[in-house]
Amino acid sequence: MATGIWKSKMITNDNALRELQSAAGEELSALLPSVLDRAFKGEL
Q: Would you say residue 23 has pLDDT above 80?
């Protein structure tokens, strides 16, 4: 019984981490053009 609860919690944590990773990736993708633009202008 405890194994089932542990497995359920691990799956929940895994799903939450995947969502956070996806959101972070989207934010980084949105920032990349701006960072590259500043880098090529010598502003970094």
A: yes
* DSSP state, residue 2: H
CA–CA distances in Å: residue 2 to residues 5, 6, 10, 12, 24: 5, 6, 12, 15, 33
Whether pTM > 0.90 for this model: the answer is no
d(CA 13, CA 35): 32
Cβ atoms 38, 44 nearer than 8 A: yes
Q: Is residue 30 packed enough to be buried (19+ CB in 10 Å), middle (13-18) or exposed (0-12)?
A: exposed
